[in-house]
Each structure stands twice: as structure tokens, then as C-alpha cells.
TrEMBL record:
Protein name: Ribulose-phosphate 3-epimerase
Annotated organism of origin: Monoglobus pectinilyticus
Source taxonomy: Bacteria, Bacillati, Bacillota, Clostridia, Monoglobales
EC number: 5.1.3.1
Keywords of this entry: Carbohydrate metabolism, Cobalt, Isomerase, Manganese, Metal-binding, Zinc
Classification via InterPro entries: Aldolase_TIM, Ribul_P_3_epim, Ribul_P_3_epim-like, RibuloseP-bd_barrel
Length: 230
């Protein structure tokens, strides 16, 4: 069974209680912490800076999964690496020379991710898969938490899953946006193994219970995938 990784997105955490909320998801068994960085240009919203990563690094042993929604990501890789990121993901749509950016991320000893907006085809990253540790498929338009999952991305997830399997590559497939315990089995059935979830986790009454249920439902998705031989 391929291991499911849960990456709670702190965009939906309580900004006045970030340390507490990060501790809650860590105690609940999450493996990653998803940190959205927005610049108001690539996406019409602003969020955290590297300072938040630097501060949380002292408080948490979670794997920091940093999603850069920046028009000028290349300018900031060194800063986000130094601040304590473990995985640094850039958007294919925002980076002029993706190969060089991924090599730069690796030069800091970090894992390199590439993200695609819902409308960007998988073809756009086929030439960089050998430099990629994680592909982050957006299942909403990037910019905001609390949106609804776009089911049309399911096809793209299974397309990528087949490519990765056929080429025997060691690349995680991460999905981000609108994921809840009710729908998580769908992207997993299609091939995803890293699950980002913000509002469904942080707005729930019982974070631990929600993460446990989400993981269980995701594991069912893995079984369904294996049975159907997707
Ligand atoms: O990158 C983004 C949004 O651009 C996400 O990581 C959101 O933070 C996910 O939030 P939910 O859709 O799960 O509420
Ligand atoms: Co994100």
C-alpha cells in the first residue's frame, strides 16, 4: 500500500494561535505542514513570509512543505531554504527556467516540487520529471482556502500517475484544494499520495479525529486504486 501523507495547510489555521495549531496537527499524526506563500501578483492574495517558517521551525519537527505562489520565486529560493523549508514547490506557470530553479532548490539540500494550476497540462513538466521530487496538482485555482474541489483534475492525476509508474520514477503526487474527508478518496484513487487540506482540518471541531478519518478514507482510495488497477 502506498503511504498516505497528510499535509495540513496553515492558511486556514488561526493566525493568532499558529504555534498551537501546528502543535495540534503534529500531535494528530500529520507528516507534513503545508505553508502557502502568496505575493499578490501570481495570485490575488497575500499570506506568510519566510519569517513565519523561521519562527515555526523552532517549534515543530514536521516536514515543512512550502508552496510558493510567487511571480518571482527564483529571487527567494535561498531565503526559503535558509528559513527551514524541507520541500520547496514552485509553479511551472511562474518560473521561466524550471530546470535551473529545481537544480537551485536541490543545491540547498531541499526537495524540489513543481505545481500546476488546474488548467495547465501535465505535458508542461515532462522534461523536468528527473529533477522533481513532488508534483503538486492544484485542485482549485490557487489563491484562497475554502474553495470547492475541481473534479476535472482527477483525469490529470491519473495521467501523471501512469507516467510516473511507467517510468518507474520516485515522485510524490500531491493534491491541494477543496479536499475533505468526504472526497479525499477520489484524488487518491486517481493516484495522489500527498494530501493537502486546510479548511476541512482547521475549521473542524476535532482536528485529530478529522485527520484520522481523512487518512482512513484516503487509504480506502489506495485500495480502490489497486483493485481497479488504475
Ligand atoms: O494553495 C492553496 C490555495 O492557493 C491551498 O494550500 C489552500 O490553503 C488549501 O485550502 P483548502 O482548500 O483545503 O481549504
Ligand atoms: Co497550497
Amino acid at each position: 500500500m502506498s503511504k498516505i501523507i497528510i499535509s495540513p495547510s496553515i492558511l486556514s489555521a488561526d493566525p493568532a494561535n499558529l504555534e498551537r495549531d501546528v502543535r495540534l496537527v503534529e500531535e494528530a499524526g500529520a507528516e507534513y505542514l503545508h505553508i502557502d506563500i502568496m505575493d499578490g501578483h501570481f495570485v490575488p492574495n497575500l499570506s506568510y513570509s519566510a519569517n513565519v517558517i523561521r519562527a515555526l521551525r523552532k517549534k515543530s519537527n514536521l516536514i515543512f512543505d512550502v508552496h510558493l505562489m510567487l511571480q518571482d520565486a527564483d529571487k527567494f529560493i535561498d531565503e526559503f531554504a535558509e528559513a527551514g523549508s524541507d520541500i520547496i514547490t514552485v509553479h511551472q506557470e511562474a518560473v521561466p527556467n524550471l530546470k535551473e530553479t529545481l537544480k537551485n532548490i536541490h543545491s540547498f539540500g531541499k526537495k524540489a516540487g513543481v505545481s500546476l494550476k488546474p488548467g495547465t497540462p501535465v505535458d508542461m513538466i515532462l522534461n523536468v520529471l528527473d529533477l522533481t521530487d513532488v508534483v503538486l496538482l492544484m485542485t482549485v485555482e490557487p489563491g484562497f482556502g475554502g474553495q470547492s474541489y475541481l473534479h476535472q483534475v482527477d483525469k490529470k492525476i491519473s495521467e501523471l500517475y501512469k507516467i510516473i509508474n511507467n517510468q518507474n520514477l520516485n515522485i510524490g503526487i500531491e493534491v491541494d484544494g477543496g479536499i475533505t474527508e468526504e472526497n479525499v478518496n477520489r484524488p487518491v484513487r486517481a493516484g495522489a499520495n500527498i494530501i493537502v487540506s486546510g479548511s476541512a482540518i482547521f475549521n473542524s471541531n476535532n482536528i485529530k479525529d478529522t485527520i484520522n478519518k481523512m487518512r482512513k478514507k484516503a487509504e480506502q482510495g489506495v485500495q480502490e486504486r489497486e483493485i481497479n488497477n488504475f
